[in-house]
Design goal:
The structure holds two protein chains of two kinds. Chain A contains 21 helices and 25 strands. Chain A is α/β, with parallel strands linked by helices. In chain A, the strands form four sheets. Chain A has an eight-stranded mixed beta sheet, sandwiched between helices. An eight-stranded mixed beta sheet of chain A has the order 19-20-21-16-22-23-25-24, sandwiched between helices. Classes of the chains: A alpha/beta, B mainly alpha.
């Protein structure tokens, strides 16, 4: 590199190549990755799944697995500012690399539940780092591990030292994982999607914690994420990865505000936002990340790029181009100043159908309760788990009702109870049928069956909800043949729904596992559409998808609604997605709806403190704002032992004596919104999250 | 934990009674009784018994009473006097007949199991960690060979080969000069010289299935993130392997141990018959064939008890290995 560096980076990855061996064939997974991580700074590696982010992290510690091999390139570690070590040249089983692992460089894994063994206490797994590096005695290691647990905010660390991972909450588990990484006082912390499995509220707390520990210990941090909102929150520098290459890199503010590579732009544009203008359609990146086996020649992004130049881009991979100091992009379509030349953007506007609130609602849910009896041991009284505890709402024809809340709040149970997978303990579910309301909850199963085709479901994990032995045709035809339709009618309907969800009917005789995640979700939607339903319950339908594919699916759901006049009950933990797709939003907490309002009003001026706390936790890819925020502490209460009064009061800063005694009812609070709070917030109060557009 | 064990023990007596009733009923299902069979054998040798003689024998053995009465007599004798009844066939008390074989059977079974585990578990671990290596292929082939080959055939082949090449007869557990001799150093050495054949025959098939189980379990565990995490902490490879995936892989193995004690008594009857081993397996087989009622019923009772002990043993071992299960027990205790 031409420029003079004022200090040597702690870690410098140079032109790293990693390949996988499968049988006799080799596949390039990392194709010349270069970056630097400096002391006290955070580099974010961002990109969709399958781009090589985690593999890069594992290559740095040489824990890639047996079939992956470093080809050329170096991973230079600068120990104590003097000693330079090339990790890539070390024996992965040797003692030299072992003295680096956990000591100079430590790693936080994505899933603390599976990265912590349930067979040993977390204390054992934390303190063994110390016992293997240096001669720390058992009691000293224990002391130190407890100190680190305290530093990462673990409640009652002396007690938790002897706890097992399955006895901790999700947030506590991630704290234990962080403690395990920090206990060796590493110079570099690699965090691989450390908050992806957590609720937004917990995510915000954990990110605060990481930043605080980084400042306290002066560590360098390599942070891997697919979420640009997280990037804006934690990064100093960003490197965007696509198919084993870094396509764009630079300081976070510049990359997010002035992205140069078409892939970076696509990632930013396909993400719905909780603050900006609501768009009818999201811009998408067409297609998906190709499998390693099908790496295209030339620019790997060629097939999905709106700026592609056939004959140029598909010949040779673009080399990284220096745009400014520490700012690079690798794209042939950049002009002499390094700007992306204009290209046709394709986000054709659709006419958005507004739901008709003058006609009677399609679905009316009244006081719905679902209590489960959790059986105990031999002599144990069963516990009554109140998953749903009195939920009421209406859905109008053509309307999308969004349903948000932290995990464990009962939103999935609500969807499953409405569709009849659970028998409600109490309450009514009225479906409007030819001008009459039918109470589905009161119908015997046989009579209920007639209404099956009116309400269908789309699941989070389409793969888990498909029988792997059935072809796509069989999957789509199943509900129709159960309903006794004729073979030709079924065949024509199957072809029709395939076209509706944008899939080629030539794929009908394939099995579900032959499709990518996004295509599988299209099949899931086609299956729901087959019986011409009026209401679709979508339970986290895009949570398992990459952001570019998520945008494709959200657009599809939108189009189908406009075309068919469908109603959706859209369940999601992702507030930006819910804001994008919903007409109205219900916020659930501890088995109850705490606020229900038209989308714009709810997001611009939340009334319930819980709603505001949720919104406060959402991270947006705008760098201007990285301010102190109120964090929601604590966790969702145990559904078998809710607190007295308002169920949110132990976590609420506004809670009064009244809140501790009496549960607040869900009451109208003007302009079509309902709030269950004695001290609702008012629009005049500034909500820190929102910025003037 | 203690409470869990006590709860389990409370269930032992009713289960045992149920087993004994069923065992007794099944033994009495075939037409006729031991006296009929005895008379048949006598007749075959030209010694015809009269009805009166038969009746007298029945009265001596207590076979004249209705079956429920026989059952109650047998049970009360057992509970009150520790008397398991009389073996018609051996003309000795059942306790003596079983007792003299029990020790040898236990020695044979325990040595076989220990040898099998000591060899099979490390091989299973090696096969998984070095998957698709030459040694893995060799062990895998041997394993399938051991699984496919019937035990008794292997026993026959081994006996034949040894006889042809060494001229030595290898049946039984002792050479003829030691068979009825009191225990001495020579007798112990003689036992060891004979013991390796049944251990080999019984061990090979047992080993094969254990190697396959451990290998499959461990292969799943080797992909788990906690192993990668352990390596990333700087743990030495062998230690990381043994502490995390190997211990996880033992779980399904241990939960399959519940019938291990049953095998100690009943296991491999056919091999024992072929090799002429004086263990309890052939004893039970003969007792059932000859309607030697009390001997058979007692042996079946023993199997039941051992089955229950084995299940308890594997549960306790599992709880010791896996804190998730341990905590379930404590949870039950705390709530109860």
């Amino acid at each position: 590199m031409a420029e003079v560096l004022h200090d040597t980076p702690f870690l410098e990855v140079r032109d790293l190549h990693v390949s996988f061996t499968e049988g006799d064939r080799q596949f390039t997974a990392l194709d010349g990755v270069s970056f630097q991580v400096r002391r006290g700074r955070t580099l974010c590696l961002v990109g969709e799944s399958g781009c090589g982010k985690s593999l890069t992290a594992k290559a740095i510690l040489q824990v890639m697995g047996d079939n992956a091999r470093i080809g050329q390139g170096g991973i230079w570690l600068c120990r104590d500012g003097r000693e330079h070590i090339d990790i890539a040249a070390l024996d992965p089983r040797g003692s030299a690399i072992r003295s680096i692992r956990g000591n100079d460089i430590a790693m936080i894994y994505q899933e603390p539940m599976s990265a912590l063994s349930p067979l040993y206490t977390i204390g054992d797994q934390i303190s063994e780092v110390l016992r293997w590096h240096g001669n720390t005695s058992r009691s000293e290691a224990r002391e130190e591990a407890i100190a680190v647990l305290r530093a990462v905010g673990m409640p009652a660390p002396e007690k938790r030292f002897d706890a097992y991972s399955f006895e901790l909450s999700g947030g506590q588990r991630q704290r234990a994982m962080i403690a395990m990484a920090l206990v060796g006082r590493p110079q570099l912390l690699i965090a691989d999607e450390p908050t992806t499995a957590l609720d937004v509220t917990t995510q915000a707390v954990i990110l605060d914690l990481l930043r605080e520990r980084q400042q306290a210990q002066g560590m360098a941090m390599l942070f891997i994420t697919h979420d640009l909102g997280v990037v804006s929150e934690v990064a100093d520098d960003v490197a965007v990865m696509y198919m084993g290459r870094i396509v764009e890199s630079g300081p976070v503010a510049e990359v997010l505000s002035d992205p140069r590579h078409p892939y970076t732009r696509g990632l930013l544009a396909s993400r719905p936002s909780v603050t900006g203008r609501r768009r009818d359609r999201l811009e998408t990146i067409p297609g998906t990340v190709p499998h390693l086996h099908n790496r295209p020649s030339g620019c790997a992004f060629f097939a999905r790029c709106g700026h592609r130049r056939p004959g140029e881009c598909d010949r040779q991979a673009p080399p990284p181009r220096q745009l400014a100091q520490a700012r690079q992009a690798a794209c042939w379509a950049l002009d002499d100043e390094g700007h992306l030349q204009a290209a046709e953007t394709h986000a054709p506007a659709v006419v958005r159908r507004k739901p008709d609130y003058t006609c009677p609602p399609l679905l009316k849910v009244h006081g719905l309760k679902k209590h489960f009896l959790q059986s105990g041991g031999l002599f144990t009284k069963p516990r009554r788990v109140r998953s749903l505890d009195g939920v009421s709402f209406d859905i109008w024809p053509g309307e999308t009702l969004g349903l948000v809340g932290e995990s464990g709040c009962g939103k999935s149970t609500l969807g499953q109870t409405v569709i009849g997978l659970h028998k409600p303990s109490e309450g009514k579910v009225f479906l409007s049928n030819k001008g009459h309301d039918v109470d589905l909850a009161a119908l015997p199963p046989a009579a209920r069956r007639r209404h099956w085709r009116d309400i269908r479901m789309v699941f989070q994990d389409p793969n888990g909800s498909f029988n792997p032995r059935l072809t796509v045709y069989d999957i789509l035809a199943e509900v129709l043949s159960v309903a006794g339709e004729s073979r030709p009618a079924i065949a024509s309907r199957v072809h029709e729904v395939m076209r509706m969800v944008g899939l080629d009917t030539a794929y009908l005789d394939r099995h579900a596992h032959a499709f990518s995640g996004g295509q599988r979700q299209r099949i899931g939607i086609a299956r729901a559409l087959a019986s011409r339903p009026r209401l679709i319950i979508a339970d986290e339908p895009v949570s398992a998808l990459d952001v570019s594919v998520q945008a494709q699916i959200l657009n599809l759901l939108r189009d189908l609604q406009a075309e068919l006049g469908l109603s959706y009950l859209f369940i999601s933990h992702d507030l930006s997605v819910v804001r994008h797709i919903s007409d109205r939003v219900a916020v659930m907490y501890a088995g109850q709806v705490v606020e229900l309002a038209p989308t714009e009003e709810l997001f611009s001026a939340p009334r319930h403190p819980y709603t505001r706390a949720l919104l406060n936790s959402v991270l947006e890819p705008t760098v201007a704002r990285r301010t102190e925020r109120q964090r929601l502490v604590g966790s969702v209460p145990d559904p078998a032992a809710f607190p007295e009064g308002c169920r949110f009061h132990p976590r609420c800063s506004l809670a009064s004596d009244e809140c501790r005694r009496t549960p607040p009812p869900l009451a109208a609070s003007g302009s079509g919104r309902d709030v269950a709070c004695f001290h609702p917030l008012h629009a005049a109060e500034p909500v820190r999250l929102l910025e003037p557009a | 934990m203690l409470r869990f064990i006590l709860q389990r023990l409370l269930w032992v007596p009713p289960t045992l009674i149920a087993i004994s009733v069923v065992a007794f009923a099944i033994i009495n299902l075939p037409p006729g009784d031991y006296v009929d069979r005895y008379a048949l054998q006598a007749a075959a040798q030209g010694d015809v018994m009269t009805e009166a003689q038969k009746e007298a024998l029945r009265i001596t053995y207590g076979l004249d009473a209705p079956i429920p009465v026989q059952y109650v007599r047998w049970m009360s004798d057992m509970v009150l006097h520790g008397n398991f009844g009389w073996s018609f066939q051996h003309s000795r008390p059942v306790a003596e007949v079983i007792g003299e074989r029990l020790g040898l059977t236990a020695i044979l079974s325990i040595v076989t199991l220990t040898v099998t585990w000591m060899i099979a578990i490390p091989i299973g671990i090696y096969s998984a960690v070095r998957r698709y290596s030459i040694a893995d292929y060799v062990f895998t082939s041997l394993g399938f060979f051991g699984l496919a080959l019937p035990n008794f055939l292997l026993a026959l082949a081994l006996m034949y080969a040894l006889f042809v090449f060494t001229g030595q007869s290898v049946g039984g557990l002792f050479s003829s000069q030691y068979a009825d001799a009191p225990w001495s150093l020579g007798k112990v050495l003689d036992l060891l010289a004979h013991l390796w054949i049944p251990i080999l025959v019984l061990g090979i098939s047992g080993m094969a299935s254990i190697i396959r189980t451990i290998r499959a379990n461990l292969l799943d565990e080797l992909r788990a993130p906690y192993l990668s995490a352990a390596r990333a902490k700087g743990l030495p490879e062998t230690w990381a392997l043994l502490k995390y995936p190997v211990r996880h892989a033992m779980n399904p193995f241990v939960s399959g141990l519940n019938d291990v004690f049953v095998h100690i008594i009943s296991g491999e009857t056919i091999v024992a018959i072929v090799l002429g081993l004086e263990t309890t397996g052939p004893l039970l087989f003969d007792a059932l064939r000859n309607q030697d009622m009390f001997l058979a019923a007692t042996l079946i009772m023993f199997l039941g008890i051992l089955g229950m002990i084995g299940t308890l043993f594997s549960d306790v071992l599992l709880a010791w290995l896996d804190p998730r299960i341990r905590r379930q027990f404590t949870l039950v205790e705390r709530r109860g």
